[in-house]
From TrEMBL:
Keywords: Ribonucleoprotein, Ribosomal protein. One of its GO terms (biological process) is cytoplasmic translational elongation. Plays an important role in the elongation step of protein synthesis. Belongs to the eukaryotic ribosomal protein P1/P2 family. This is 60S acidic ribosomal protein P2-3. GO terms for cellular component: cytosolic large ribosomal subunit. Transmembrane segments: none annotated. It comes from the Eukaryota. The keyword Ribonucleoprotein applies. It comes from Capsicum annuum (Capsicum pepper).
């Protein structure tokens, strides 16, 4: 994501074809870790393509996918994706029963202020 953000920042800055050095400068300016492999992969994937068309195509893909709402999943459940199927695995926690000792009112009155 950092590399994509750097690429988009270079585009917004007016550089229609940023190089790996341009992206490295942007990443260095914010102290981000530089991964040359990811930079070269991104640049090879977007070479010769218009960024506005790429964003529009990405929006279409996102719109066509169905979203899963995790709001209905309990806090003690895990969601596992297995072969395209979403499986909700509930983890049962051992409940600790803390028994509170009930104090009787009689114990509170077993003292005298003048003893």
């Amino acid at each position: 994501m950092k590399v994509i953000a750097a690429y988009l920042l270079a585009q917004l800055g007016g550089n229609s074809s940023p190089s790996s050095d341009d992206l490295k400068k942007i990443l260095n300016s914010v102290g981000a870790e530089i991964d040359d492999v990811k930079i070269e992969l991104l640049l090879s994937q977007v070479k010769g393509k218009d960024i506005n068309e790429l964003i529009a195509a990405g929006k279409e893909k996102l719109a066509s996918t169905s979203c899963l709402s995790f709001g209905c999943v309990a806090n003690n459940a895990s969601v596992v994706v297995d072969g395209g199927q979403v499986i909700v695995v509930e983890e049962k926690k051992a409940e600790k029963k803390v028994e509170k000792e009930e104090e009787s009112d009689e114990e509170d009155f077993n003292f005298s202020l003048f003893d």
